[in-house]
Amino acid sequence: MEGFNKTLLSKLILMGITDQPSIQKLLFTFVLFFYLFDLCGNLTIVSLVIRDPTLQSPMYFLLGNLSFVDMLISSVTVPKMIAGLLGDNAITVKNCITQMYFFQTLGCTEGVLLAVMGYDRYVAICHPLRYISKMGRSTCILLVFVSWFTGSTTSLVNAIMTAQLPFCNMKRIKHFFCDTKPLIKLACKDIQVNQVTMTLVSVFLSIGTFSLTVLSYVYIITHILKLRSSKSGSKIFSTCSSHLTIVILFYGTAMCTYLGPFTEASLEKDRIAALLFTIITPAMNPLIYTLRNKEVMNSVRKLIK
């Protein structure tokens, strides 16, 4: 127990996005720009959903929650990433595990939210007459609560198991923020149980929620194929295209990171995928929804006027 308490006081070093000093200033500008773009874009969507009476449907309620999660995901990782680019790469083990927990909680919550949004689209398209009864306000609030509860509880398993590991002092984490895979590689004991647990949790969440999302779209596509009017089918698909684009971006990067092997080579690839997951994707989500959604675009125009 004494050794464990001692490790809580030790510091780790985040290696950052790159170890090449020549491009640090360029990366700082790039990261700061996308972070501010992410905050402004997602905060705008949250504000529109709260203030605009035309955006009070279940779909926009879920979209507002998704934007809120995207803001938090970036805010959990990017400030420390910026500090690292300015030279402050040190972080305590306690703070590292805390960052890891909140990042994974938000990532898991977003995965469940995307599955819920897929179900929302399925009900709206395949059962339009029962949409209001199936996706009422109380149901939406319950589904959002389930998303947060699932994300926080499953992430807590990894956090508790990681906190029990003894870490060697002043080790370098091959990442720009604290994530499970690169962090547990620094442990001074066998981590096979942690690796198996992390893989099982990742498979349960990523494959499970992705399968539910795919199932929703299988029913939607089947419904579209049964329609006699091709114009109606294209209109329906257009309403789903924004969500489908975000699903591909989210699960593509998440699965590359968390379902990959625990090797040194994979850790390098994970940094690239994580850069997309933590900065690019959250910043692109508002852009995807505003450009492809007439209601949101009209609301933005009213806000500007």
Describe what this molecule looks like in 3D.
There is one protein chain. The chain is an all-alpha fold. The chain has a single domain (2-304), classed as Rhodopsin 7-helix transmembrane proteins (Rhopdopsin 7-helix transmembrane proteins), CATH 1.20.1070.10. The chain contains eleven helices and three strands; from the N terminus they run αβααβαααβααααα. It has a three-stranded mixed β-sheet with strand order 2-1-3. Helix 4 packs parallel to helix 8 (192-226), helix 6 packs antiparallel against helix 8 and helix 8 runs antiparallel to helix 9. Mean pLDDT is 84; it is low at 1-9.
Descriptive tags:
single chain; 305 residues; mainly alpha; Rhopdopsin 7-helix transmembrane proteins; 3-stranded mixed beta sheet; 11 helices; 3 strands; disordered N terminus
- The amount of beta strand, in percent, is under 5%
At CATH level 3, the topology is Rhopdopsin 7-helix transmembrane proteins
SS element count, helices: 11
Large-scale geometry: globular
Distance between the termini: 62 Å
Percent helix, as a range, is over 70%
* CATH homology superfamily: Rhodopsin 7-helix transmembrane proteins
Radius of gyration: 21 Å
Spatial strand arrangement across the major sheet: 2-1-3
Give a count of the beta strands, DSSP E runs of length 2 or more: 3
Instruction: Summarize the main sheet.
Output: 3 strands, mixed
What is the total number of structural domains? 1
Structural class: mainly alpha
Low-confidence stretches: 1-9
Q: What is the name of the CATH architecture?
A: Up-down Bundle
Give the topology string: H per helix, E per strand.
HEHHEHHHEHHHHH
- CATH C-level label: Mainly Alpha
